[in-house]
Amino acid sequence: MNNFNKRKIRQLLTAAFVLPLLLSSFTGFGQSKASSGNAVSAIKESDIKRDLFALAGDHFRGREGGSLDELKASVWIADQLRAMGLQPAGDDGTFFQFFHIQRTRITETSRLAIGSHQLVHGQDAFILAPAIASVDAPLVFVGKGTPEDMAKVDIKGKAVALEFSGTGPAEISYRRHLFGTMTRRAAELVKAGALAVVWVSDTPAQSYFERWTTGLERGRYDLPGGANTRVFSQAPTVWLPASALDWVKQPGQQFTNVVNVESFSYPSVNIVAKVPGTDPKLKNEYVLFSTHQDHDGVRRAVAGDSIWNGADDNASGCVATMAIGRAFAQKPGKRSALIVFHGAEERGLLGSRYYVEHPTVPKGSIVAVLNAEMIGRNAPDSAAILGQQSPHRNSTDLVDAALAVNKTEAHFKLDTLWDKPEHPEGWYFRSDHLPYARANVPAIAFTTLLHADYHTPKDEPDRINTDKVTRIAKWIYLTGWNVANRPDRVRVDPGFKLER
To answer: Where does the Peptidase M28 domain lie (predicted)?
Structure first.
């Protein structure tokens, strides 16, 4: 072999072995000692960005749970999974597990009037709960409802109107604080003898009325037979805009409210796929990668935009989960990978609740659940794990696996406040890992938390940090890869019990 050929061979060897090592030092997710032998390189930002703009684009009209748009988006996702080489793991040899959701709403024949003002639910006023009611009573205005205000008025047998202010906890937590306050105070007033409660926004609170009443238009949803499907009688609680404040204060008005409800059944769907494991024994166990494909659909226009696209909530989680499926299809683990996109999450975790009760694999074979929920916004280096700390942590083994990958590979600064039981958002209880944790399956959720565009038409794909989504997808994948290939299952912590 002459010297020229030796030089060429050295050059080829350098290109084949040294260059990839150099490149890996820049990506942060190279074939390090912690991640050798896996297919993390199959998770590419270009794929994630392409899939994000397809799924969160206007074509799928916001993917509202129980609608044709959710079903269309679900078929699209299943087609992508099939093309990647994943196998169907739903019902009857398909990628799908269909289930019914039930909706209870206020009928169009319901009537609401205060004095001479005829009000339409969903336009001029919002009734907080779809419950049967019939009230004809004098209206009394009690200011802000302070003890001093209440001492001046006899509320027994009357409808009580009071003003609330747009001040409270931080903006991002104020919605839950507001609805919780309205519900609690209304219950107190009804217990004291009021027949109805009318909340009127002040000027600072008007923006909340415009933004947060959209969910009240639809009514309540649940699985058939669930608590939210039950029709009952209840003293009505009404929310009015700030423009009503002046005329609501006028004395001598009558409150008239006749509310009827109706119920509908809609189809929703879980998308279920798998990559069989390579170990003859361990392949009968599953690492479940979880997310949800639905969002809010088409609603009242805000700044001319009526499609609530849900790019972060939760197309970001969907495209990351698709990328994880692509990586496992390229190189399976010892345990099988189970990929589940849950339908109707926004309706109350309905798809994940249904799947836990009707799993398409034996429930005991599910080793762990790694859930992706809103992973594309806020600071580039920030993230959180839900289920990281007590009382939400149900598997120290699983949490330690995720933290180890973050330390060696992902390098996110982890927010721990949102996982605390006293956090006002109760974020741990609002995503698809929860039904699995309640069923004593080790479960955590990866998230980058809420932001100002949450559940608004501004949650668009061009606002998503796709590099961040890619990095979190790799973090979830490497955590799942560890769980899929370790000799023993991750364990449920003894004595695990949620605070509610």
So the answer is: 270-476
Query: CA torsion sign, 54 to 60 to 64 to 68?
Result: negative
pLDDT at 230: 85
**Signed CA dihedral, 112, 114, 115, 117: sign only:** negative
What is the C-alpha separation between 251 and 264, in angstroms, rounded? 40
Our CA dihedral for 244, 245, 251, 254, rounded to 10 degrees, sits at: 40
Tokens coding 323: 């990328």
Q: What is the DSSP string of 283-338?
A: GGSEEEEEEE--B-EEEEEETTEEEE--IIIIIHHHHHHHHHHHHHHHS--SSEEE
Q: Tell which residue, 102, 109, 162, 104, has the closest CA to residue 134.
A: 109
Residue 104 to residue 108: CA distance in whole angstroms = 13
Q: What is the DSSP letter of 427?
A: G
Angle 44-47-51 (CA atoms, 0-180°, nearest 5)? 145
Structure confidence by residue, pLDDT tens digits, 346-357 = 999 999 999 999
Q: Which two tokens stand for residue 301?
A: 């226009």
All residue ranges of the chain with pLDDT < 50 are 1-27, 31-35
Residue entry with tokens 């047998």: 157
CA max distance for the chain: 108
Residue found under tokens 């699209």: 76
pLDDT for the residue 213: 82
Do strands 196-201 and 237-240 pair parallel, antiparallel, or not at all (unpaired)?
A: parallel
| Residue labelled with tokens 């991750």 | 490
Residue 284: per-residue pLDDT: 98
How far apart CA 262 and CA 371 sit, in angstroms, is 34
Rounded to whole angstroms, how far apart are CA atoms 399 and 416? 13
DSSP 199-228: EEE-GGGHHHHHHHSHHHHH-EEESTTSGG
* Amino acid 8: pLDDT: 46
How far is it, in rounded angstroms, from Cα 291 to Cα 318? 6
The neighbouring-strand residues paired with 295 are 64
Domains parsed from the chain with CATH numbers: 29-102+265-485 (3.40.630.10), 108-259 (3.50.30.30)
CA pair distance 470, 154, nearest whole angstrom:
60
Query: Judging by DSSP bridges, how do beta strands 117-119 and 111-114 pair with one another?
Result: antiparallel
Report the SS3 class of residue 31.
coil
